[in-house]
Specification:
Layout (H helix, E strand, L loop, with lengths): L9 E3 L1 E3 L5 E3 L1 H4 L16 E3 L10 H5 L25 E4 L2 E7 H14 L9 E5 L4 H6 L3 H21 L3 E6 L2 E6 L14 H8 L6 E3 L5 E3 L6
Length: 225
Amino acid sequence: MMDSDGILRHHLLYFDRPNGTRVPSMALAQRYQDGLELPPVSARGFWYKAPGGFETRSITDVLEREDPAAYFAGKIVHIGLCAAGLQDSYVMAIDHARQMYGVEYQANAVQAMLEGSYKREIGTAPQLADIRGITAMSESLEPERVVEILSQYLTLIIRCVMDDHGTLDKFVGDCTMDFWNAPCLRRTMSCWPAAPWLTRWTGGSRPHRYRSRSGSRADTGDPRG
């Protein structure tokens, strides 16, 4: 049950049949201990599952007794096929470059239940930061001066984002796209985290304003004024 973007992030813990009986997933059915903590599920029975890596062994090695029986003692063993042609492989959120086969996906679900370590989804907080009036101002300045202003401004924005545990996504001219809560969760953050850095940088009573000789202006402060 992939998400709308084609990424597999969730696992169906159970589903209810029309007659009222509940059918558990394979992972839930393999609970062999009482008192295991179950993951929080949505109204449709889905829970978010972050995948990890598991060692795989060739069934040929097992049948030819190259793997000693003691290796599997006390372990839950999932047997499945790993072949791309069977269309049982999925793109996971943790790694878009290598698809995970269904048998490993099921093993991850069981392991998460045994550990009781459930990841939860959090929303990201994006920020687009640019300089108001930069186009008009740059038309009246020498290119070297424009580069100097942009270099100082972007350097401070990056420092601010990094110090506030954010993630720099991209540069778009004088604009930066940043977001928070991935990969580090931020419980609180400032509405306009760049302002203290800009104040320290320019040191004036109106620290986030530039004015060219021709009178055009560029602002880098809070858009609310």
